[in-house]
């Protein structure tokens, strides 16, 4: 990506990033609080994508994001969608603690998905139509079995029983 | 667990662990090779469980294990079941690179399962009845969606499209 299209914030506890074009991407690098206190970064304006890398104890507020919010190598981050924000996907990699607070518009977006690998303590927070708040964990442990009954051997993957309620 | 029931090997490139009772467990800690060359640890005899922790570049040969082979905080390990070895499960946590070589007896054990979290580059290696060798990756990336259509909101987890062949 053309560097001119990236708006960056680096090594800050808190701050605001303003985006003036939906073609721009936002990079949030090594931001966040310490001693149990969260830092806050706010992205103002619709953007193409957001990369959150190497951040600890960060609350990230976002407006609509066209492609993906990527969270990698982070610990204890909150992705908070502002009212009206529509997101299509959040990708989480090598991250411990990623709490996603969904806006009503993103809940209504049936294409919205979270893609995750090598991560733990992830959840989706949202409010149901009747006003009840939910916090749903995203499974991080899976069980694999080898299925030799078909024409070709196959691996079956299922969510660990840990998550059956 | 009673320490008298643990047989340990620590900080060795290679070695052999002999187990004289199925009630004993084996601890393999910080073992393995370097510079791309694998170390080899052999467990001789049936045991209750094997813990493989903090090992890099290790080939671990095992006989039957009653409960679980646990692989955690490792990089590039191979779990190689000796002929006749029957395993029930391998649990993989925070590990990059875990190749499991199945014995015929474990392939026939339909209860055999691999449980994994926060890990990458895992696969199962086995030989089919007609002698063909297989190497099947265990999915490490998952896609989550929120399903609001039922009585209660639910999270749906599926294997990433990366693994559809």
TrEMBL record, chains A, B:
Any Pfam family: CAP_C
Q: Which InterPro entries match?
A: Adenylate_cyclase-assoc_CAP (IPR001837), Adenylate_cyclase-assoc_CAP_C (IPR013912), C-CAP_CF_C-like (IPR017901), CAP/MinC_C (IPR016098), CAP_C_sf (IPR036223), CARP_motif (IPR006599)
GO process annotations (BP): actin filament organization; cAMP-mediated signaling
The molecular function terms of the Gene Ontology recorded here are: actin binding; adenylate cyclase binding
C-CAP/cofactor C-like domain location, by residue? Answer: 1-140
- Please state which protein family the record places this protein in: Belongs to the CAP family.
Could you identify this protein by its name? Adenylyl cyclase-associated protein
GO cellular component terms, semicolon-separated: cytoplasm
């Amino acid at each position: 990506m053309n560097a001119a299209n990236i708006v960056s914030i680096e090594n800050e506890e808190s701050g605001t990033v303003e985006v003036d074009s939906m073609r721009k991407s936002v990079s949030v690098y090594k931001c966040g609080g310490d001693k149990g206190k969260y830092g806050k970064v706010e992205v103002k304006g619709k953007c193409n994508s957001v990369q959150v890398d190497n951040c600890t104890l960060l609350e990230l507020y976002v407006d609509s994001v066209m492609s993906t919010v990527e969270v990698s190598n982070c610990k204890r981050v909150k992705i908070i969608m502002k009212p009206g924000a529509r997101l299509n996907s959040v990708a989480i990699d090598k991250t411990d603690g990623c709490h996603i607070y969904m806006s009503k518009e993103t809940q209504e977006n049936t294409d919205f998905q979270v893609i995750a690998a090598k991560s733990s303590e992830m959840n989706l927070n949202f409010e149901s139509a009747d006003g009840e708040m939910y916090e749903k964990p995203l499974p991080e442990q899976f069980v694999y079995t080898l299925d030799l009954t078909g024409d070709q051997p196959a691996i079956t993957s299922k969510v660990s029983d840990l998550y059956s309620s």
